[in-house]
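Good morning,

Attaching, inline, the backbone tokens for the sequence recovery test we're adding to the shared suite. The designed sequence is right after.
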């Protein structure tokens, strides 16, 4: 839509372009907006989202930028202060272009990331290590409200996430409905 507001959504696998993600549902439901999605599964806010957002903002102008990330950072061993610093820098970069910054807290990790999220993987070998990483993500989520000059979308409970990380279509639709109010 050439006359609609221009929106950029930045994220990881929870946000990739798909008819099953909150951002894809947003893009489908809001044809009155020009929505672009800059997201890649498995990527971190600190290492991928931040530089790719900065590059995109050098060549494109947006009215609003949604940022949803941090889980891959925490599960890769990054600590909350480092992630928050990168997130604040992203917000500052967005604001410097004249766009509104919206930081998405996401689903409620205290309720929705059940036992499945703490099962060991090929990268994290023990349940204890998974629980430690989940604890860090919970600290990160609780700390997001310190970000300045951005709209903070509060977390919402979607019910237990099947694989511990990626919402089902019904959960993604609820997430979209919540986030799109901001």
């Amino acid at each position: 839509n050439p006359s609609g507001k221009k929106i950029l959504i930045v994220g990881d696998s929870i946000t990739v372009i798909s008819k099953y993600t909150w951002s894809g549902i947003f893009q489908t439901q809001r044809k009155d907006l020009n929505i672009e999605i800059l997201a890649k599964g498995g990527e971190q806010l600190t290492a991928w989202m931040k530089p790719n957002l900065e590059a995109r903002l050098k060549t494109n102008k947006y009215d609003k930028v949604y940022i949803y990330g941090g889980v891959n950072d925490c599960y890769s061993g990054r600590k909350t202060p480092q992630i928050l610093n990168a997130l604040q820098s992203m917000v500052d970069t967005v604001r410097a272009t004249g766009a509104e910054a919206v930081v998405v807290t996401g689903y409620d990790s205290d309720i929705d990331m059940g036992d499945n999220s703490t099962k060991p993987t090929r990268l994290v070998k023990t349940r204890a290590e998974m629980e430690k990483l989940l604890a860090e993500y919970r600290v990160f989520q609780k700390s997001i409200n310190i970000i300045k000059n951005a709209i903070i979308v509060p977390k919402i409970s979607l019910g237990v996430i099947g694989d511990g990380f990626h919402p089902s279509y019904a959960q993604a639709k609820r997430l979209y409905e919540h986030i799109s109010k901001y």
